[in-house]
């Protein structure tokens, strides 16, 4: 199936060059490396109304899965924020691309009063409002938030979706206080697993994922908006022994304080476990316990060589000369 009639050209989102080398192709989308700045991106993207086309349907949805790596990432963000300021009455937090609202729920549980959310998905925005966040459905630049009013911006698996990345980061810089924090988590195109699988990896999807970052290219594009790196690590989410075991057993959902209604419904409708399944669960938990040291070594080795599947990065706005 050809989709060329649904595509429009796009300059490099970092340096705006039009010179690139095509690295691979998948589902009608090209993945290219900028000849000038080495950023990997999709040079021909869907036109704005392509989502209503019969040839190619893309529907933004809200992912209600709650897994242990996601929870660990959220905890890391608020631990970092607490070093910046522990005044929960004054600190303001914006969840950019709020999705299922886990960051918002966690912030509310911790006692933060000023929480904001923006998303293009109306379901996500309604969910954010039900949590108590001041919310907006649409693009951040259309919200017209005041200058330098936000202390923390969270962008968890969002930046790779932007068509105009520099423009969006500039808007983030405008609304973020000087010395404020922006947390960005995005797939690591330089990771071992992505190098091994190539375009077969689930992150390669030209309809939604428009830009693919390494640590250097992420730092470079953030620098254009006045953001300086404060902490950058890679997260190993797909290759730990316990994680793979959870996936194989389809037990990757974590029963947490703020689990989704969808998960609660599945749990309530699930049949009562048999004696044999209880025995298997005990054995599996024991096995996972003994695998923890191996996972610890694997995670630390991966972070040492920056080979995790995700880049988890904290940047500080520093516009003072």
Percentage beta strand = 15-25%
Ranges with pLDDT <50 over ≥5 residues?
52-60, 250-267
Distance between the termini: 53 Å
The outline comes out as globular
Features:
321 residues; 9 helices; alpha/beta; Rossmann fold; 4-stranded antiparallel beta sheet; 13 strands
Write the layout of secondary structure elements.
Layout: E1 7-9, E2 20-26, E3 29-34, E4 40-41, E5 44-46, H1 68-84, E6 92-96, H2 102-110, E7 114-119, H3 122-131, E8 134-137, E9 150-156, H4 165-175, E10 176-187, H5 192-197, E11 211-212, H6 215-223, E12 227-235, H7 241-248, H8 261-269, H9 275-304, E13 310-317
Parallel strand pairs: 6-7, 6-9, 7-8, 9-10
Antiparallel strand pairs: 1-5, 2-3, 3-4, 4-11, 10-13, 12-13
Can you offer a commentary on this structure?
This protein is α/β, with parallel strands linked by helices and 321 residues long. The protein has two domains: 4-52, no CATH class; 68-238 and 303-317, Rossmann fold. The protein contains nine helices and 13 strands. Helix 4 (165-175) links the parallel strand 9 and strand 10. The longest helix is centred in the last third of the chain and has 30 residues, at 275-304. The radius of gyration is 21 Å and the shape is globular. The N and C termini lie far apart (53 Å).
């Amino acid at each position: 199936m050809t989709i060329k009639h649904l595509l429009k050209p796009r300059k490099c989102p970092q340096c705006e060059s039009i010179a690139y080398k095509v690295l691979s192709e998948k589902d009608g989308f090209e993945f290219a490396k900028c000849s000038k700045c080495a950023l990997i991106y999709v040079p021909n993207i869907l036109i704005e109304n392509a989502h209503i086309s019969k040839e190619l349907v893309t529907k933004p949805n809200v992912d209600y899965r709650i897994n242990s790596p996601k929870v660990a990432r959220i905890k890391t963000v608020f631990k970092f924020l607490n070093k910046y300021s522990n005044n929960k009455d004054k600190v303001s937090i914006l969840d950019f691309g709020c999705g299922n609202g886990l960051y918002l729920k966690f912030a509310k549980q911790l006692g933060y009063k000023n929480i904001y959310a923006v998303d293009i998905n109306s379901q996500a925005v309604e969910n954010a409002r039900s949590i108590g966040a001041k919310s907006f459905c649409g693009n951040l630049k259309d919200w017209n938030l005041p200058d330098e009013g936000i202390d923390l911006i969270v962008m968890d698996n969002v930046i790779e979706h932007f068509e105009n990345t520099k423009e969006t980061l500039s808007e983030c810089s405008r609304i973020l206080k000087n010395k404020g924090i922006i947390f960005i988590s995005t797939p690591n195109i330089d990771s071992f697993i992505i190098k091994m699988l190539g375009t077969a990896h689930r992150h390669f999807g030209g309809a939604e994922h428009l830009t693919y970052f390494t640590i250097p290219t992420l730092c470079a594009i953030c620098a254009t908006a006045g953001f300086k790196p404060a902490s950058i690590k890679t997260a190993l989410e797909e290759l730990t022994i316990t994680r793979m075991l959870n996936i194989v057993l389809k037990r990757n959902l974590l029963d947490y304080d703020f689990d989704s209604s969808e998960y609660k419904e599945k749990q309530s409708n699930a049949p009562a476990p048999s004696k044999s399944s209880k025995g298997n669960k005990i054995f599996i938990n024991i096995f996972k316990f003994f695998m923890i040291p191996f996972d610890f070594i694997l995670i630390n080795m991966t972070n040492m060589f920056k080979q995790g599947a995700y880049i988890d990065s904290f940047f500080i706005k520093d516009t003072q000369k």
